[in-house]
Amino acid sequence: MKTKIIQTMAVIILLLSCKENSSSPSNQSNFIIPLKIGNSWNSKITELGSNGLVISTLNETDYILKDTVIGMHKVYCMKTIFNGIDNNLVSYGLNKNDGLYSINIENGKVNEYLWYKYPCKVGDIYFRHGDTVKVEATDVEITVPAGKFRCVKYHLYHEFPSYFYLCPGIGPVKQEHFEYDSKGKLYMNGKIELISYSLK
């Protein structure tokens, strides 16, 4: 389960606290995640049992390491570290007019996937690497250890539902992941919460 959450997080955060007061989606930036060398986000990953008790926790640090060129695009490289251990896990992305894109190369071909649509409105639906994503809210207040944030809420329809809360101009604030227990009841089996961040 822990491996599943870590893998999901590494891919989804991909490229990747406002002030103590609430921050609104319209402040600071036109981008859902600000991609600039030196930006960093520290989060806590919590694995939960079907009884709601904590099974394990893990610290995650994501930071923009550098920029480079892939295909015709200048992209940003994000490095992800778990519990202070560098496993050379990197991902690439760029901001376009319609949102944040994940960039990769497969069999010599450059692929672009819209990861977080932004600007967006409630009810927007798009497809992300085989999965369906729906914008469920554009101004929901989320409280995490880093503070209060005004966020866009994305619902990822996969084998199990997941929710992603991002504050425009700040980036990822919270994630919630669900699965079914032995009785077929849906429960939250994992969450990721922003602890601190630094924007250049």
Key attributes of the depicted protein:
mainly beta; YmcC-like fold; 1 helix; 6% helix; 62% strand
Topology:
Elements: H1 2-13, E1 40-48, E2 54-70, E3 73-82, E4 85-96, E5 99-106, E6 109-117, E7 125-128, E8 131-144, E9 147-157, E10 162-167, E11 171-180, E12 186-198
Antiparallel strand pairs: 1-2, 1-12, 2-3, 3-4, 4-5, 5-6, 7-8, 8-9, 9-10, 10-11, 11-12
Give a quick rundown of the structure.
With 200 residues, the chain is mainly β. The chain has one helix at 2-13, and strands spanning 40-48, 54-70, 73-82, 85-96, 99-106, 109-117, 125-128, 131-144, 147-157, 162-167, 171-180, 186-198. The termini are far apart.
Parts with pLDDT < 50 across at least 5 consecutive residues: 2-28
Counted up, domains total: 1
Total helix count?
A: 1
Query: What is the helix content?
Result: under 10%
* Beta-strand residue fraction: over 45%
Assign the CATH topology. YmcC-like fold
CATH class: Mainly Beta
How far from one another are the termini? 35 Å
Shape: globular
CATH-defined architecture: Beta Barrel
Strand order of the largest sheet: 6-5-4-3-2-1-12-11-10-9-8-7
Secondary-structure element pattern, one letter each: HEEEEEEEEEEEE
How large is the radius of gyration? 16 Å
Task: Outline the biggest β-sheet.
Answer: 12 strands, antiparallel
Mean pLDDT, nearest integer?
88
Number of strands: 12
Structural class: mainly beta
Assembly annotation: single chain
